[in-house]
Amino acid sequence: TKHVIKNIPWTTAKNFTVERGQQQIEELISTWNIHETWLHHSEFLEEEELKDSKRYHYRACWGIPTRRKPIPRATASVYFVIVISQFKPDTAPVEVFYRLESSRLIRRPEQCQFREKWLKDIIENKIVCTERL
């Protein structure tokens, strides 16, 4: 069976705003196959000006609150970067990358389907670490 990688049509550089970027990240997250017990919030972190591009940094913080523990013992963050190249026409779509807080591996939404297991692994590792302390 072939896995279908879900992605969204990204806005063009010309139509990009910080708010639109955050909306589109939420739109992308809505395509991920994640159980409804997971809750997240996303936020804009910073704008970075480089020689060849502008980069907009965002974070989505994930956790599983419960009635007994409305504040999760641990959370997992996914960091997003939206890149606007100086070399591409402003009618070209922005480029989007993401990485997990525990990893240096940078992923592209159109090349890699997000896995809920990644969030679980981060949280389990954090809980194991805090229990050791």
Key structural traits:
single chain, 133 residues, alpha+beta, four-stranded antiparallel β-sheet, 2 helices, AKA14 protein, AKAP, protein kinase A regulatory subunit binding
Polypeptide structure, described:
The chain contains two helices and four strands; from the N terminus they run αββββα. The protein has 133 residues and is of the alpha+beta class. It has one domain (13-132). A four-stranded antiparallel β-sheet has the order 1-2-3-4. The protein is elongated and about 50 Å long. It starts with 17 loop residues before the first helix and ends with a helix. The relative contact order is 0.21.
In short:
By secondary structure, the chain is an alpha+beta fold.
SSE inventory with pairings:
Elements: H1 18-31, E1 39-49, E2 53-63, E3 76-85, E4 95-100, H2 116-132
Antiparallel strand pairs: 1-2, 2-3, 3-4
Protein name: AKA14 protein
GO molecular function: protein kinase A regulatory subunit binding
InterPro entries: AKAP, AKAP_28
So how many helices?
2
Helix content: 10-25%
Strand content: 25-35%
SSE class? alpha+beta
Radius of gyration: 16 Å
How would you sum up the global shape? elongated
Number of strands: 4
Task: Summarize the biggest pleated sheet.
Answer: 4 strands, antiparallel
Terminal CA distance:
44 Å
